[in-house]
Specification:
It is a single chain. By secondary structure, the protein is an alpha/beta fold. The protein is 33% helix and 22% strand. It has 12 helices and 21 strands. The chain has helices at residues 15-23, 75-87, 106-119, 131-139, 152-174, 181-195, 202-211, 243-250, 282-291, 313-323, 361-364, 392-405; strands at residues 2-7, 28-31, 40-44, 47-51, 64-67, 72-73, 94-98, 102-103, 199-200, 216-219, 257-265, 268-270, 279-280, 307-309, 311-312, 327-331, 341-350, 353-355, 368-375, 409-413, 421-423. The chain has a 10-stranded mixed sheet, with helices on both faces. Strands 15, 17, 18 and 19 form a 4-stranded mixed sheet that branches. β3 (40-44) and β4 (47-51) form a beta hairpin. The longest helix is centred in the middle third of the chain and has 23 residues, at 152-174. The chain starts with a strand and ends with a strand. The relative contact order is 0.15.
Length: 424
């Protein structure tokens, strides 16, 4: 059986915690897209961790954690993360990497930085992790798959050809130092030594896992609104954030994905540029940011303060639709316990018309939030284990959101740790 855990919004919804929890009942956890450009925060008996490439099942010794072929693989970052969790007392995770995964090259990060500098005030708010240049190269067919690291002569020739193209860009567009093909080859030989112990034929591995009835969990990065097709394009990421892509990014048949758990945050937050209709500012935003998340709403990768907003029914319903959601995990509900009243965005006003369906970016940029105010519950709900023990207004808030999403909320997170979960 294959489940997918994905985000409904801009990312940072709490997918890491939900994956960590469900991994205990899984055999295989797979990262199927994205790269080291976003974090997955997990709090457990070992401490607090901000993972970037490691799948969130890495703290469960019964789990095989796979980096799928859809991931932008930053090899030094992966090895660094493995070493860091082991240094902190975590048993070494069981990691495998698809031989078809593409390698994030050192120059991808440089080109990411140079392009943001060139764009100046028009930049995309990139984390400068090299993701856009990586995927550009992948689909231009000048990327490098993991298996190529173990074919030195072939690799050397390919590097020479790619460096010719890259150096033209560096010289004439960015006016930056040129790449050295021999130096790059030596770096990739080091990468080969680092990654060799983990490399597998993932297609055969996954075929056998499904045949044997293994429990498989697909872990997505970011959320629906950062998808390059269905998100707030062009202020998106560069690989599909949708559960449907999990079949491609993990190398499994699409019909095997039978349960899509979409993580939805009880309020809104976002890192990076782009339209954000329910965004709030000033002291109101600062207070929510300070109280939010598991220690304040700051990017796990960048450390940047997240943009804050009230819960957006329009964006979240749309996010669930494009994911194909079968159930919702509703997270960080405990954060809202300080509010007397809780505004919720129930529609967008665009050019004088109120709409309930999430529009394309041009209309989104002109949209104003239509707010409905719900009563708060003014109490700390951490530690509550049963749904019926939640304050009445808290249950009403959940049920209001559930009706708006048109998908059942089955998991409620009321605190940062693995145990702060209510099954509804």
């Amino acid at each position: 059986m294959v489940k997918a855990i994905v985000g409904a919004n801009w990312g940072d919804e709490g997918k890491g915690k939900i994956t960590d929890m469900l991994a205990a009942d899984s055999d295989i956890v797979i990262r199927f897209q994205g790269g080291a450009n976003a974090g997955h925060t997990i709090i457990n008996e070992y401490g607090k961790f901000a993972l970037h490439l490691l799948p969130s099942g890495s703290f469960n010794q019964n789990v095989t954690n796979m980096i799928g072929n859809g991931v932008a693989l930053d090899i030094p970052e992966l090895i660094k993360e493995i070493d860091e969790v082991v240094k902190r007392g975590v048993p070494k995770p069981n990691i495998v990497v698809s031989e078809r995964t593409q390698v994030l090259m050192p120059y991808h990060k440089l080109f990411d930085q140079y392009e943001e500098e060139r764009l100046s005030d028009r930049q995309f708010g990139s984390t400068k992790s090299g993701i856009a240049p990586f995927f550009s190269d992948k689909f231009s067919k000048i990327g490098f798959q993991v298996w190529e690291l173990f074919e030195p002569e072939r690799l050397k020739e390919k590097i020479k050809n790619v460096v010719e193209v890259k150096n033209l860009m560096l010289e004439h567009i960015y006016h930056k130092p040129l790449l050295d093909a021999d130096e790059l080859f030596n770096t990739l030989m080091e990468y080969a030594d680092m990654i060799k112990p983990y490399v597998i034929d993932s297609v055969a591995f996954m075929h056998n896992a499904i045949k044997e009835g293994k429990k498989i969990l697909l872990e997505g990065q970011l959320g629906s609104l950062k998808d390059p097709d269905f998100g707030i394009y062009p202020m998106t990421t560069s690989s599909s954030t949708l559960a449907g892509y999990g079949a491609v990014g993990a190398g499994i048949p699409p019909y095997e994905i039978t349960d899509i758990i979409t993580v939805v945050k009880a309020y809104s937050s976002a890192v990076g540029a782009g339209a954000f209709v329910s965004e709030i500012f000033g002291e109101e935003a600062d207070e929510l940011r300070r109280r939010g998340g598991d220690g304040g709403e700051f990017g796990a990768t960048t450390g940047r303060p997240r943009r804050m907003g009230w819960f957006d029914c329009v964006a979240s319903r749309y996010g669930c639709r494009v994911q194909g959601t079968t159930q919702v995990a509703f997270t960080v509900l405990d954060v809202l316990g300080y509010l007397d009243e809780i505004p919720v965005c129930v529609g967008y006003e665009v050019d004088g018309e109120v709409i309930r369906d999430f529009p394309t970016t041009n209309k989104l940029e002109r949209a104003k939030p239509v707010l409905k105010v719900l009563p708060g519950w003014k109490t700390d709900i951490r530690g509550i284990k049963k749904y019926e023990d939640l304050p009445e207004n808290c249950r009403k808030y959940i049920e209001f959101v559930e009706k708006e999403l048109e998908v059942p909320i089955k998991i409620v997170s009321n605190g940062p740790s693995r145990e702060d979960i209510i099954l509804k």
